[in-house]
Amino acid sequence: MVKPPFWIFSNRSHRFKSFYRLRIAAIGGNMTRRGRPTLRTIANEADLAVATVSRALSDDPQIAPETRARVRQIAASQGYSPDRAAQRLRTGRTNVIAFLLNPHEEILGYGQSMIRGLTEALRDTSFHLVIMPVFSDRPTIEPVESILRNRLADGVIFSRTTPDDMRVRLLLEHGFPFVCHGRTELATPHPWVDYDNFGFAYAAATRLIAQGIRRPCLIPAPDGMTFAQHLRMGFLRACGDAGIAGEVLSGISLDDTPAAIQAHIRGLISNNSLPDGFVCPGEISAMAVHAACSDAGHSTRIVMKHTSGMADIIRPHFDSIFEDLAEAGMLMGRFLQRAIAGEPPQTLQFLQPAAPIAA
Q: Domain containing 26 — which CATH number?
């Protein structure tokens, strides 16, 4: 067996040193033989104290904005990332925001839009976003209990609130930062971002009535959800103001599959009890209603809530009202950071207004 040249193994060799430097450059750019860049590495290049660099990377407002920007630039150029395990031991913080994501199959683009808004809110901060799925066959409180028990995050965001939400109660009892998408009826104030479903339902029913509809109908949200009450009250208020007896469908809800909604509408057609106009709180329910009516040769008026770009390409075109989920995600991300910093919950509440109807 032929032995390889000695210079391959000798770090005293000029050739080896050149080879070693090239490999380091290829693998890690500014990485040194000693390993990953540290705060001291950045401090030396920036000519700042290590403590100043640490505060700048934590976005401390007492550090000048230009200094923070320069430190972040140096950190990025060196491939610096904080040692999160050491950071957690030192500060007790994880720098993690947990987003508990329900399936939300009834709302087009819910998860994608929310995540887009959340990532924008956490951009250029020390926080990382972690998505935790919420399974429909498991208690919704389980992931919250896991986060509290194992200290998996510094704050949590979740949706589909109920008037007496046990997740909200538990987090309030533990003093753990959170923001929920939706309101509760609890006496203790807490951070939330919500959409004006009362305003949506009122405007949608009013539009149908103005178009000559005399038997308007609401596809309701699932019983028990806070926003289900808001939808129902807004719809019935508009009908009452017009002196019309509106109908809230029973036996079906926004959470049902398109096939189930279609089957229910076909049953109404068979019984000659089909309403002449529908308020649909989502694109999926609107398309299901239209499909059932169209297949049976019936025409009906629909006003729907839309959360995606589908409203522009659905044919026939429906009147619609937009809910900006990306904005909701961004607001919740910002509110949660402020809650973690200790800001009072009364200042961390926002109701998104229902947009004008897009004809």
A: 1.10.260.40
Q: How high is the mean pLDDT of the chain?
A: 88
Cβ–Cβ under 8 Å, residues 295 and 288: no
DSSP state of 36: S
Considering its fold, how many domains does the chain have in total? 3
Q: Measured between alpha carbons, how far is 198 from 196 in angstroms, rounded to an integer?
A: 5
Q: Mind listing the pLDDT tens digit for each residue in 176-209?
A: 999 999 999 999 999 999 999 999 999 999 999 9
Distance in angstroms (rounded) separating the CA atoms of residues 26 and 219: 59
Model pTM score: 0.78
243 within some domain? yes
pLDDT for position 85: 58
Is the preceding peptide bond at 316 cis, omega within 30 degrees of 0? yes
CA distances from 293 to 74, 190, 279, 298 (A): 62, 43, 14, 5
Contact 195, 354 (CB under 8 A): yes
Higher pLDDT, 92 or 303: 303
Burial of 170 (0-12, 13-18, 19+ CB in 10 A): middle
The C-alpha atoms of residue 297 and residue 289 are separated, in whole angstroms, by 12
Beta carbons of 321 and 204 less than 8 angstroms apart: yes
Interatomic CA distance for residues 336 and 341, integer angstroms: 8
